[in-house]
Amino acid sequence: MKKNRPAPVPFDFVLEELRLTNLRRKPMFGAHAIYVNDKIVLILRDRPSHPQDNGVWLATSEDHHSSLKKDFPEMRSISVFGPGVTGWQILPADGADFENSVLKACEFIRHDDPRIGKTPKVKLRRSKKSIISKKKLRSKK
After folding, report:
1. Residues in CB range of 96: below 8 A, 6 or more apart
2. Distances (CA, A) of 58 to 8, 89, 125
3. Which of 55, 84, 104, 116 has its CA 20 to 30 A from that of 71?
């Protein structure tokens, strides 16, 4: 039986640029999430589905979009989540200044720019015992 190997990391120069940070990489939805310390900062995506959303996604919030747009003129909302503005912004892989923009974003991350990065909400895991207990309660009703 063959083991599924994780897909290679696209735009792996990002890992080199952030090597001196407390970096963690996690496969996520066919892409690679990049965490620095406790924050998710980037997603590296290069997939055949929705190629317009291939590139480096910046974790940010809508209140930072206008100031980031000054630093990254080609930045835009991703479209894979549907129409409208999202917190996730993309530096598109097919952009004229893609690599320089990504290098600049990495520099901002290394300097802990508050416009890039989100602290994920903590998800509580339920124990099997509590799940079984709830099922028993439902079946008694």
Report:
1. 74
2. 20, 5, 27
3. 84
* 3-state SS track over 45-84: ECCCCCHHHCEEEEECCHHHHHHHHHHCCCCEECCCCCCC
Residues 6+ apart with CB under 8 A from 83: none
Q: What is the spatial distance between Cα 85 and Cα 40, in angstroms, rounded to a whole number?
A: 19
**CA–CA separation, 54 vs 71, rounded Å?**
20
What's the N-to-C CA distance of the chain in angstroms?
Answer: 45
Give pLDDT tens digits for 96-105: 999 999 999 9
What pTM does this model have? 0.81
User: What is the C-alpha separation between 96 and 69, in angstroms, rounded?
Assistant: 15
Long-range own/partner contacts, residues 44-51 (CB < 8 A, 24 or more apart) = 44/9, 44/10, 44/11, 44/12, 44/14, 45/10, 46/10, 46/11, 46/93, 50/79, 50/80
**Residue 126 identity:** R
CB contact at 8 A, 108 and 115? yes
